[in-house]
Amino acid sequence: MDLEKFKSEAKRAQSAIKTLFARIKRMRPNDLDDTVHELHDEAFEQIDCLTCANCCKTTSPIFYQKDIERLAKHLRLRPSDVIEKYLHIDEDNDYVLNSTPCAFLGDDNYCSVYDARPTACREYPHTNRKKVYQLLDLTAKNAEVCPAVFYIFKKLEDRFKI
After folding, report:
1. What is the pLDDT of residue 162?
2. Across the chain, where does the E strand assignment appear?
3. Paired strand residues for 95
4. What is the pLDDT of residue 106?
5. What's the Cα-to-Cα distance from 2 to each of 6, 47, 51, 123, 130, rounded to whole Å?
6. Which residues does the chain have with pLDDT short of 50?
7. Cis upstream peptide for 101 (omega within 30°)
8. CB atoms < 10 A from the CB of 143, how many?
9. In the prediction, which pLDDT does 3 show?
């Protein structure tokens, strides 16, 4: 996968993505969850996250208290030490990573804390969750980060013809 080509295409498509998702929000198709879930599965049959890891390289998940505690246990640190070493509070008052790429991302794109990763990482890119229409704004942002989400957008664009 050519990550730079993807980034360029996704950036150029942002207006179309927002337009399509606004249309879908207005339409509220009954089968949206099923459609997006099917496309999610299709996308991840073709796209290997380990060849990309763009999410880990460019964005920070939100860390909830239970995530911090799970990570602390995994790292054999106190939760306060995890916060001090790896996290800060952002403008939305959420704990996020101090920097990107993620401190736990290896050169091989494997996560060194995979079993203890935060909930946001476990659920990313959120395209297999229920009530997809509620997440369309987030999905639009994720389409610039995740080739699988961009793939889903392209398929939805074909289906809903903007």
Report:
1. 55
2. 87-89, 95-97
3. 63, 89
4. 96
5. 6, 11, 10, 24, 30
6. none
7. yes
8. 27
9. 84
